[in-house]
Structure to design on (180 residues):
């Protein structure tokens, strides 16, 4: 399936989740990441600030802060450039993409990030993902050497052909619905 159709289909499916389904998925994602050795050994983690149709990353952020970890959030610029900066809940602004992001430009060097929680819309069996089409994460992950993880809903696993610039996520954790 072509990526634009995958993107449209997944956004519709994500928006159709009930608040209870989204909360169960979000709680599971937090627990699942925190059980990973990469998380337990990490000093610095990066995660996205979720949009209303995505899993809620606030649980993970709060847990990581309680665990004494440095938490980073993405900040985007023109031409697909993205950096991670220290997360401060009191210093966020709404980006032109409708996503909350830090006001700060204090970029943390990728070599200092132990684990990145990667968002997206769909993943194939090889860990490649369909994002929102801006290429921010693919560009960032191209030279990133640390651990990457995504926490997906079972319906987000899908067949598509990756493109040469796509970067695979190293660990894809899949939430299985109870109603199957």
């Amino acid at each position: 399936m072509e990526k634009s159709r995958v993107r449209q289909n997944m956004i519709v499916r994500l928006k159709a989740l009930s608040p209870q389904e989204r909360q169960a998925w979000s709680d599971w994602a937090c627990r699942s990441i925190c059980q990973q050795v990469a998380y337990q050994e990490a000093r610095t983690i990066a995660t996205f600030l979720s949009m209303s149709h995505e899993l809620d990353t606030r649980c993970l952020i709060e847990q990581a802060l309680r665990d004494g970890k440095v938490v980073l959030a993405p900040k985007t610029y023109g031409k697909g450039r993205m950096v991670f900066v220290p997360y401060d809940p009191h210093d966020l602004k709404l980006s032109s993409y409708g996503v909350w992001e830090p006001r700060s430009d204090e970029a943390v060097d990728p070599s200092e990030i132990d684990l990145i929680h990667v968002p997206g819309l769909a993943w194939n069996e090889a860990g490649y993902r369909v994002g929102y089409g801006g290429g921010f994460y693919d560009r960032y992950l191209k030279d990133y050497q640390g651990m990457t993880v995504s926490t997906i809903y079972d319906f987000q696993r899908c067949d598509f052909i990756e493109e040469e610039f796509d970067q695979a996520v190293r660990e894809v954790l899949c939430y299985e619905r109870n109603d199957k």
Q: What stands out?
A: The domain at 3-175 is CATH 3.40.50.10420 (Rossmann fold).
